[in-house]
Amino acid sequence: MAASRVDLVLPCLDEEQALPWVLGRLPTGVRAIVVDNGCTDRSAEIARELGLLVVTEPRRGFGAAAHAGLEAADAPLVAFCDADASLDPAELPRLVELLEQGGADLVLGRRRPTIRTAWPLHARLANRVLAARMSRRTGIRLHDLGPLRVARTADLLALGLRDRRSGYSLEMVLRAAAAGWSIREVDVAYAPRMGRSKVTGTLRGTVTAVADMSRIFTEVSR
Ligand SMILES: Nc1nc2c(ncn2[C@@H]2O[C@H](COP(=O)(O)OP(=O)(O)OP(=O)(O)O)[C@@H](O)[C@H]2O)c(=O)[nH]1
Ligand SMILES: [Mg+2]
């Protein structure tokens, strides 16, 4: 990959335990944009000490953080990755290659758990139901929501994503498909997160995610 072809958005809510590993895994040509979503730990300091770009987004929510990162991106391609060390940024070049050479417009990392405990059963089942619904809606066979993903920055901004909570990733897939984008999947490793779980490991996180995603299916027209 050429220098700084990809800006990698890392939405971050108290990930000081995971961040050093994640930031040590950046491939050449990838610039990290750490979005501080109201961290009360040392996440933002860790990123600043490494000389990285830190964007502050005080409005809570995965979508608010991810979108603030997208708006700060200026490389031709933008990628997203959880900052909890469950996904490995070193796998990004394969996604980028498929986008650039395979004619895809959005490449999603299909999570393949490294060990059983990486992906709790209820979360895996919920994701399977979600993937089936996404496939039916988009007409594209999809297996995973794909939190590690890459697309063209300008095109993504033009999609006009509106969700600022847990529906953001789904809205991106549905609006991309509705705009006629080619969406492809690549297998990526999924390891147990470092630090405290916020979504799949908590009742509140799971309920919010299900509610937000159901709303997105209703709101985004075919
Ligand atoms: N859940 C959540 N995550 C946020 C928020 N803002 C930023 N993030 C970051 O978004 C990424 C994804 O969130 P995770 O908490 O890993 O969500 P998940 O992978 O669905 O579930 P767990 O890993 O089980 O918590 C992480 O890097 C978070 O730090 C927010 O308001 N809520
Ligand atoms: Mg996670």
TrEMBL record:
Database matches in Pfam families: Glycos_transf_2
Domain Glycosyltransferase 2-like: 29-124
UniProt organism field: Agromyces humatus
Protein name: Glycosyltransferase family 2 protein
Family statement: Belongs to the glycosyltransferase 2 family.
InterPro entries (alphabetical): Glyco_trans_2-like, Glycosyltransferase_2, Nucleotide-diphossugar_trans
TM helices/strands, residue ranges: none
